[in-house]
Amino acid sequence: MAPPPLSTRGPGAAAALAVSVALLFTASVSDGMAPEQSAPPAVTCRVQVQELPAVLQMSGDYQLSTKVFEPNAEASPERACGDPQQPLPASGEAQIEIAAPVTVCLHGAAYEGALQLSPSDCGADAVHVIHATPKPAKLSFQAGALPLSELSISCVAGCPYQSRTVETFPELPFPRGEHELIVELEFRARGHRRAVEEFKLSPGDNLLRVSLQRFL
């Protein structure tokens, strides 16, 4: 005798029907999904830093970073560059592994530089150059017992600024191809004789010591 047909009514039948529909839906979705794409292979790029003074290049204080290229980040070096990741060898040449277009940056106290690289640019004997450029001279002042808030600073030669305070004196950029900047500055403070001094500035931070004599 043949078994009785499955009933289409009752809790058991409803549950079986729901499972069948769920399995059918899952199979349909799985058939329609594209296979996962594997990550592109990394390639080795050779990068050479040039125009960095030899003493700094060999100091071990400079590093390189890579960050996936962002088209809208060109105007902001802080956004374009990643955190320092790889020490710069004393030779100035480094090998970097990339799998997508990146910005390669040079990091250091006095010099900086950047280069955009794509995997298609690398291979064979290609060497890509980062030109190290001097950071603007950033001045800080030390005036002994004289409060810095009372100090007024003006350029006599080498820069155009007049009657600036310690807080508002701007950074001084270097002319193209120059690695030092000579400026002559005038210092004034109430109750003190004016003083004019010449300074040779280096890229990055510069501490200037100022000495003003009080009126008798």
User: How many structural domains does the protein architecture include?
Assistant: 2
Mean pLDDT: 85
Strand content: 25-35%
User: How many beta-strand elements?
Assistant: 13
Describe the structure.
The structure is a single chain. With 216 residues, the chain is of the alpha+beta class. The chain has 2 domains: 43-134, Immunoglobulin-like; 137-209, no CATH class. Helices cover 14% and strands 35% of the residues. It has helices spanning 11-32, 54-57, 77-80, and strands at 43-50, 63-68, 86-87, 93-98, 102-107, 111-117, 127-131, 133-134, 137-142, 152-157, 181-188, 195-201, 204-209. The strands form 4 sheets. A 5-stranded antiparallel sheet has the order 3-2-5-6-8, with no helix packed on it. A 3-stranded mixed sheet has the order 4-1-7, with no helix packed on it. The longest helix has 22 residues, at 11-32. It is elongated, with a radius of gyration of 33 Å. The chain starts with 10 loop residues before the first helix and ends in a 7-residue tail after the last strand. Mean pLDDT is 85; it is low at 1-11 and 13-34.
List keywords for this structure.
disordered N terminus, five-stranded antiparallel beta sheet, three-stranded mixed beta sheet, alpha+beta, 216 residues, 13 strands, Immunoglobulin-like, 14% helix, 2 domains, single chain
